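Pair request: fold both.
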Amino acid sequence: MSDDAKQSAVRCTLNGRPRRDFVPDNMLLVDFLRETVGLTGTKIGCDGGECGCCTVLIDGEPRHACLTLAAVCDGAEIETIESLDTGGRLAAIQRGFNEKLGAQCGFCTPGMVMAAEGLLRENPNPTDDDIRAGLAANICRCTGYVKILEAVHFAADELAGRDKEAAA
């Protein structure tokens, strides 16, 4: 990049903390997160918006960081996979992926988890079809979709205070 590349000031809230950075106008959000900030949980998969590995939440909505310019995130709240645990305790969706073996090779997992987190915030009691639609922009190359469905249902049940084991 040339020294005269245009830059923009970006003020955002990243994983609950305010930030102010100057970024090149053409810098992708995934590169900002990984290279500038050092948050490497957001993966680079296809680099073209087709796989969903780079999914983050922007103002609560799942978005592909490989298709989003960092500069357009001025004023936004951005959440990455690193934001989900609290005090060393995994979020319900992370526990679901762990308990139900939703992560196979693990490469797609951060994007799947963030897309599922966005879905559960919008729809806390999703059906299988709702989950499929909510995760349609994310690809698991290991074909772990059944386990991923189970993981999202596990998280939904935990968030709602339902105990499937006790109900059985």
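--- second member of the pair ---
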Amino acid sequence: MTNILLKTFVKNHRNTDDSQVRAAVGTLSGAVGIGCNVLLFLGKLLVGTLSDSVSITADAMNNLSDASGSIVTLIGFKLADKPADADHPFGHARFEYLSGLAVAVMILLIGLELAKTSVEKIISPTPVAMSLVTAAVLVGSIAVKLWMAAFNRRLGGLIQSTTLLATAADSRNDCIATAAVLAAALIEHFAGLRVDGWFGLAVAVFILYSGWSLAKDTISPLLGENANPELQRDLVDYISRQPKVLGYHDLMVHDYGPGQRFASLHVEMDRNEDPLDCHELIDDMERECLRSHNVHLVIHYDPVITDDPELTRLKQAVIGLLKARDPRLSLHDFRMVPGKRHMNLVFDVALPADLKGQEASIRDMISDALNTGGEITYHIVITYDAAAFN
């Protein structure tokens, strides 16, 4: 069914780097979500009202929130597809994150209201009328939500959308919630225990948890989370394989929404190489990263000295000291500024977050190890970079 819908409503659906394809996939997900959730809401609301079941009514409201969320998702994908303009030169792709945040807020509000209703039912319980129609609607709802979970998981994986993957997880969670509602109705019918309010409260708590989880997933990229580790690995693997590249550091990826990623990177090349050749290679690498990974990459060229034995000896000595202190420590941009009686060693160190506060200790450790009574005094000048970028 998913393949049929994709082929029917999304032209060139395999070309996921195309922003129009991405928008079409998001629109398809939103439209299907609206249709399915509205039907489930109406069916559950009817049987919940007829059976006087707060847990079934709560589950119906959950489907209504899902339908509202699908509307917001659909609008979000439409707005995210707007081209860049003078006021927003990086495009509007972050609208997708904002739509996900709006969905999360709606889910949280509905969850609070349902929790209030369930508590009232616990305090003043009323019997639930169980029927074959009620059971059929709930079982049918579980089947529909299972398909929607698989459907949105497939679409979310196709375009690497956290919003659609979150929608898939929400559909999976709905299956669990509806199964709990069905269990409550059966328990009340066959055992006579007044558990409807308690199960309704459990569904409300589950809705609140889902809303909070979705909020965290959408707020994180808006705040500026670290780049996808797989994307980082793909970029540096490609860069490190290129001729003339001796090393790299300071990879920074800026996410302006799905499909709108900008990055900067420093690459080290032998200072004796022809600068024009290096410039041409850098241009080629930037174009390839845009073509293969849809990342607008800007590369900074760092010429390094490779034919000075004393610099090489000192650099290797400092690397050994850093690795002995912590294997995660690394350096780059190593330079030496010689004088008659002292020498400045200037370099950058990539510092893991949990070692923050140990900067002075690391510098003193290197200084003490190098200054052991020789004729030259070494002054250590370190700039500390975040290890997350190196």
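Observation on the second member. The chain has a mean pLDDT of 85.
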